[in-house]
Design a protein that fits this description.
Number of strands of chain A: 12
Oligomer: homodimer
Radius of gyration of chain A: 19 Å
Number of helices of chain A: 11
Distance between the termini of chain A: 47 Å
Structural class of chain A: alpha/beta
Chain lengths: 333, 333
């Protein structure tokens, strides 16, 4: 149940009730959704997940809510789902040969309903908004995030506000948000200004903020990992490799792995590799040189990971420790 | 088995062995892949399909090959699959309200590996190419078709040729084809010229043609229908509604329905509605006025269905009869 989870600061450990709107700790630290693992450990969750595999019924047919005990254990009638997930895990003999590895598979998150992994976080975030009684949701975004949020807000009958920095619009994605009835607000200023403004609006008008800082989105994104492992019949791979921009996915994967391991659903931890673009590599710099994290000016053609000040850098460092992980950088080529 | 199917002309009824490359009848008529339904009727195919549902094993984990007895019953080791299909069937309370219907669901074929339904036909067409011993495949295309063909040719280790009419390139899609190693040949002339040229090349150089005329692609696209029905636990909806451009999908759906009905897997036929754009409505004109089919100059912003001379018009008329179907047109708005 929802009540079996709490929000907990990753810095000072302060705990908060999930039933109240909160994005950060009073100390400024990021929040984790922490589940009651000792209680959950008494249940045969892996059997539960496997029994739901292939289900045609809502919400078991969702590649997120199939794992709801470890995500947000919301009452079924509160869940806002398309459904989402159920993306394929592709083998590729050609890439295996190229990379010189025996077995490698690709998880194609573009197969989500609005065409990105964001749907996994948003189904969870909008469900949280629903349970918190919010009627309006908002984000600052130039692309996938707004499309996904608008889609889920539409299902829930919520108003959706999207704050857009000037001149930074991915039109294909914005048209998705508009088609789902989102209200878009173009502001004078860059992404940071848009982010500031949306936070102000959320605090003043009981609007629920669904940018990356929202801890429930990370919970939903854990389902990428859960689904990979279930597709492999819970056989743990040696490595899980992810691109790193805002660092939400690697944060989610490491948190999910740790939970599965603590519950005994997997018997060993795979290692995690986070790959950054040379021109947007703040985590790589910190990890490689053991230096304090420092934001940077990001520049890469890989726009989705062109982020110089990633929200989840601290959660990422923790996750790298948990998984004996590495960070690598790659050139534009 | 492959040998339990034949190619049969929809005009004169002439039969041909599936084991030889052939795209049209000697009389010029289109070919159907005809399966040995009396033999298949003795097997409990629905149980077979249901037993494969949710499988993690190749090729049962494909939303096409799960139904292989009714598509191309190729030996498992010959199948060229990503896998594909397994696209979600979404409810939408909002659209139900808007349309004034009690229950309506959306099949999101964009969730296929290269992001369109073309993958369902191509997995089947490239498997046929493989069984026919062809080492090179080709198509004339400006978009989804080339991306999909290139992806499957890459898996099979085949050379892929794409003929592109000048100035009519969807760059996002073309870049997919290039990334999969296709050789693209831009020609001076329109789509019809490109089509003529690719047919000539295929006939002269033992290259396998995978444009819409290829009957195996229709077989693969039938899996859209099979998967919808299986997702509904074989409960037949009242209507199946499809957009109509080149008319391959409605052809596939009507053929699949007829086969399922003849096999007793469904107990009644749903009706089929084909929706065309006002500016590209040759099937609508023929169906509404009971006139002879006539190609037209097509013009609509819905580029994927902007086709004035659809390959499958004759198969479509047959399918409309089988399903007590209708054709409707809609404005650009």
């Amino acid at each position: 149940m929802w009540d079996n989870s709490i929000l907990k600061c990753i810095d000072c450990g302060q705990e908060y009730d999930v039933g109240h709107v909160r994005y950060r700790c009073d100390c400024g630290g990021l929040l984790d959704v922490v589940h009651d693992l000792p209680m959950l450990g008494k249940r045969r969750l892996r059997d539960t997940f496997d029994a739901r595999w292939g289900s045609r019924e809502t919400p078991d047919n969702s590649g997120v809510w199939r794992y709801r005990e470890l995500i947000v254990d919301a009452p079924v009638e509160c869940i806002v789902s398309k459904p989402e997930g159920n993306t394929n895990l592709y083998p590729s003999a050609q890439i295996e040969t190229y990379a010189g590895v025996q077995r490698m598979m690709l998880k194609h998150e573009g197969e989500n309903p609005t065409a990105s992994f964001k749907d996994r976080g948003m189904t969870c975030g909008v469900t949280a908004a629903h349970m918190l009684g919010c009627k309006t949701v908002a984000c600052a975004s130039t692309g996938n995030t707004s499309a996904s949020l608008a889609a889920y807000a539409a299902i829930a009958g919520m108003q959706c506000l999207v704050f857009i920095p000037e001149g930074k619009i991915a039109y294909g994605k914005l048209s998705q948000a508009l088609a789902y009835g989102a209200r878009t607000i173009q502001i004078e200023g860059d992404f940071d200004t848009a982010m500031e403004l949306v936070q102000k609006v959320c605090n003043e008008f009981n609007v629920y903020l669904l940018n990356s800082i929202n801890p429930f989105r990370i919970e939903g994104q854990k389902a990428i990992l859960f689904e990979i492992l279930q597709q492999l019949d819970w056989e743990v791979p040696d490595w899980i490799v992810l691109p790193g921009g805002n660092l939400g996915n690697n944060t989610a994967v490491s948190k999910g792995l740790r939970e599965l391991h603590q519950l005994g659903i997997i018997s060993r931890m795979p290692r995690m590799a986070v790959i950054q673009a040379e021109g947007a590599n703040p985590l790589y710099r910190t990890w490689k040189d053991h230096t304090t994290f420092a934001p940077m000016h990001a520049d890469t053609i890989a726009t989705a990971i062109k982020i110089g000040n990633p929200v989840s850098w601290k959660k990422s460092l923790r996750g790298l420790e948990w998984t004996d992980g590495v960070v690598e950088q790659v050139s534009e080529q």
